[in-house]
Amino acid sequence: MRLSIIALISFVATLTGFAAPATAFCGFYVARADGELYNEASKVVIARNGRRSVITMSSDYRGAANEFAMIVPTPRVLRRDQVKTVKPETVDHLDAYTAPRLVEYFDHDPCQPQLFAAPVMEESASIFSNRSAPDRNRGARALGVTIKAEYAVGIYDIAILKAKQSDGLITFLRNDGYTIPDGADQALQSYIKDGMKFFVARVNLSRHQVGKSQDLPPLQISFRSDKFMLPIQLGKINSAGSQDMLLYTLTKNGRVDLANYDVERIPTGTSVPVFVEHFFGEFYTDMFNRLAPKSGAILEYAWDMAWCDPCAADPLSKAELKELGVNWLKIADKNAGQDVFVTRLHLRYGKNSFRQDLILSETDDRENFQGRYVMNHPYDGEITCKAGREYVQNTRKRLAQEAHDLHQLTGWQRGIINRNIARSVPAIYH
What we know:
alpha/beta; 9-stranded mixed sheet; 9 helices; 22 strands; 23% helix; disordered N terminus
């Protein structure tokens, strides 16, 4: 069986914490736009503390386990204790916690004065090929490839390779059963020139119970490096078109930015018609699709782990943060979430964009930001007072503005938007 190189990404760095659920907003959470909206979206979590980087890679690969392989450029030869697997649920929890969210409010009776706004609560490594180990090592040396280490981690067989030339590395990988995509030689050579090593992982079918689960557990690597960056050039080779990456960084001081690319913030705080509740996935993807070609790097969330308003999911526990590489939280600290700042970047790129690897920079900016969209249900009871009649007129204007904004954000046809609004609100507002 020929193995296709699936995900080629690499490293960055550190951080996470604990926070209590927030209940400060007047409304309740309805839906979230998480990573499952994007079928080709890989998820990378990077925790960085000083020079220490911990990178967790959750592949978007779907297919037979015997066709999966991953190669990742790394700055160091990784020891066995620097590689492990992580529970998929932990990465999914972080995705849910940081996902753009839709919140819901209900207008009160305009004929009844409101004194306050109350919230509505609703083992030993296996050999990678059939060749004997001595023959394989001799063949590697002849191609300018050194096998620096081999070991097993969970269901994966891991090899750490060093190469002198990309063509020798490609030949070695092909001899081991890998299918290397066209165009890989130039990207590989650039990493070889920079002294990078190559972390190669494949599923060991004797240890993977395919019948029990088709999901492959995320792989995590840790190392020390002065560089805070993420190689993405190899991963671009796999895709015929564009691909999405959700990049979550956990840091100690503040938001993570891209030093070599502009980052645009997702539109937020917009009021949308109430029918969007039933089409929130389509709403968010269409909005993102219109924005991504202008930037490619979009900030979707930036907040510490101490609180959120509103929360799309419960904050991660200290145990989960530790699993993702956070190593600076004190056990006795009850408000450790303040020391963990999470940034969520959504990147879309193809072969002809993002020609440089991502250079990351931790900033001191702790301004809270989230992709948040608001539904305001018009009052649906009887209206008899003068203030109520004024409310009806103002609500009609509000609905017209919501229709305009929705069209601008998504490109949806105005006629379709207006018909859906008419179906979802009382006739008095038509």
